[in-house]
Amino acid sequence: MLDYTALLSLIKQNGKVCLKEGSGKTFCLHRGTAAEVSVFENGVYLLFDLFQIRTITVPFSEVSLDIVEFASKPTIYQSPANPLLPTGAVVQGMVRFSLIREPNWNKLLYQIAHPVLFTEEKELEAEVQTNLHFPLFHAGTKELFLGPEGEVKISKG
Question: Contact at 8 Å (CB) between 46 and 118?
Answer without folding.
Answer: yes
